Amino acid sequence: MLTKNTAGVAVVKKIALTVNGKAYAIEIDIRESLLDVLRDRLQFTGVKQGCSVGECGACTVLIDGTPVNSCIYLASWADGKTITTIEGLAKDGQLTPVQEAFVEEGAIQCGFCTPGVVLSTTAMVQSGRSFTHAEVRRELSGHLCRCTGYQKIVDAAERALREAEAK
Ligand code: FES
Ligand code: FES
């Protein structure tokens, strides 16, 4: 890795971040996206790479609980942050209620958009507030899905929210 660019500016930075409950201290190039660091350096390949320009939502991760497109988020900004990827949800093979809702509603076809929409739905559930149908659609509007026609995804998100509220 180059440590300086052609103008002599340092491009390497050490960052410390927590991913799925585990602490990492790594050197990154300040031009690297969080998506590249998560997928290529830390091997969290459940974070999907679609458009790479912030349009499709496939690369969504939770940063301190908020859904973010990791392709347009510099890895250097993640210093000190807590990241959750799709790999951080199920424990010992036990799906979370949100993941189960997606299975039960048949909201998964090719699965490419699924990590992102599941994480955005998880953020809604973790917020503890109620969402109207229109708000659920708006919260998921940053995710493109080529397979499901969206209705089943919205059904799954609303099921997860309903079940969480009933607890
Ligand atoms: S890959 Fe990040 S929004 Fe499409
Ligand atoms: S299930 Fe295929 S892109 Fe959404």
Give a summary of the structure in a few sentences.
This protein is of the alpha+beta class.
Question: Which terms summarize this structure?
Answer:
elongated; DNA polymerase, domain 1; single chain; 167 residues; Ubiquitin-like (UB roll); five-stranded mixed sheet; 5 strands; alpha+beta; 16% strand; binds FE2/S2 (inorganic) cluster
Describe the protein's architecture and organization.
32% of the residues lie in helices and 16% in strands. The protein has 167 residues and is of the alpha+beta class. The protein has two domains: 77 residues, Roll (Ubiquitin-like (UB roll)), CATH 3.10.20; 70 residues, [2Fe-2S]-binding domain (DNA polymerase, domain 1, Orthogonal Bundle). A five-stranded mixed beta sheet has the order 2-1-5-3-4, with helices on one face. A hairpin with a 2-residue loop joins strand 3 and strand 4. It is elongated. Bound molecules: FE2/S2 (inorganic) cluster (FES) (2 copies).
